[in-house]
Amino acid sequence: HKDDRISVLVRQLHRDPKVWDRPEDFLPERMLDGGFENLPPNAWKPFGNGQRGCIGRSFAIQESVIVTALILKHFNLEFVDPSYDLRIKQVGTIKPAGFKIRARPRQQVKIPLSISVKKQEETAPVQTQSAETNRFQPLSILFGSNSGSCESFARTLASEAPTHGFNATLATLDSVVGSIPCDRPVIIVTSSYEGEPCNNAKQFVAYLESKPELKINYAVFGAGHHDWVNTYQKIPIYIDETLEKVGGTRIVNRGIGDVAGDFFGAFEAWKENLFQVLCKMNGLQAVISQEKLSIEIVNSTRNLGQITDVGIVTENKLLVEASELGPAKRHIEIELPKGQTYRAGDYLAILPTNPSEVVHQVLKRFKLSTLKRSMLKNIIMQKHRHCIC
């Protein structure tokens, strides 16, 4: 009946022979290859599960994974008794009875998991090219970015601004400390890293803490990952709310980009709404744009990239297939250049590359040399019409 109460003995639930093969054996590999995803509903009810479950369970699991990784990084482990058979004792929690291991420190072992890059130089304000800039309204686009996603979004806004009647400038947040333009709309794209600002936004956030008077029209788009529950969107929220408190006027609601969701779709929807509102606010002329491409040959053979060394993927195997319960999970091992080390909490940025055969086809088609740097430019030819917004 609807209001009846049911008590389930979890210990017996997890030992149902109709569901579990070898139910009394400790077999962590049950989780591999979609094993848990294919179980009957509610066949697995771990501690802290359900509507009234422990909110710290996922953090406890994450801590266990980190601790295990650190132990295996620094120690070789072996049984004190090689013939040990698993026996369970339970005092509050389940433990292996009489189980002992011997840990021997590993000698001079480094596990590099990060790529060496040169420090990103401060980006000075850059004005986007426009055919008739004197007819356009000024627009300031500021970004805070470590891995490049927010900078990419900011550059997209700047490149599309002329098609909406704006002449945009692009800069990092730190570069405008004390000189935020008040005569134009200010668009900010930034993220958080464990609740802290990006490397090129720290001075800006500190500047806002002094509560300067800023009579500006502004909009904020924030990027983040919802798994970081306590710090998700912390810096974008702080910037958005603080600018309003110190006298700013919000143009549109703060945009929210979740890397674990439709990250780019959220940005596109926010961007479209932003330009529509800006058009209405300023009574601008919209622009019909026609794009033309040009190629500039730069006679230089020096290495212009910031990445001086690259890592090598030595192993990449699928652990769990993608399903409606979540994305695929993979085990990936990366060998990085000599001298690179990893510390818990470091970030690993993965930069995609085009297949070499595709690159060579393009070079051959346009008769370009691999020894010269080629720059592809997007030229926007503009025609004006009255904005219907």
Determine the CATH topology of the domain at 126-284: Rossmann fold
Shape: extended
> Would you identify the regions where 5 or more consecutive residues have pLDDT less than 50?
109-133, 301-306, 379-389
The H/E string reads: HHEEEEEEHEEHEHEEHEEEHE
CATH superfamily of the domain at 126-284: Flavodoxin domain
The total strand number stands at 15
For the record, give the distance between the C-alpha atoms at the N and C termini, rounded to a whole number. 57 Å
Kindly state the mean pLDDT as a whole number? 79
What about the largest sheet?
7 strands, mixed
The chain-level structural class is alpha/beta
Helix percentage range: 10-25%
Radius of gyration using CA atoms only: 28 Å
Number of helices: 7
Q: Which architecture name of the domain at 126-284 does CATH use?
A: 3-Layer(aba) Sandwich
Percentage of β-strand residues: 25-35%
Write up this protein:
By secondary structure, the chain is α/β, with parallel strands linked by helices. Among the domains are: 10-105, no CATH class; 126-284, Flavodoxin domain (Rossmann fold), CATH 3.40.50. It has seven helices and 15 strands. The protein has helices spanning 10-13, 57-74, 149-160, 202-209, 234-245, 263-282, 356-365; strands at 75-79, 88-91, 93-96, 101-105, 126-127, 137-143, 166-172, 186-191, 217-224, 249-250, 255-258, 285-298, 312-320, 329-335, 373-386. Strands 5, 6, 7, 8, 9, 10 and 11 form a seven-stranded mixed β-sheet that branches. Strands 1-4 form a two-stranded antiparallel sheet. Strand 6, helix 3 (149-160) and strand 7 form a beta-alpha-beta unit. It starts with 9 loop residues before the first helix and ends with a strand.
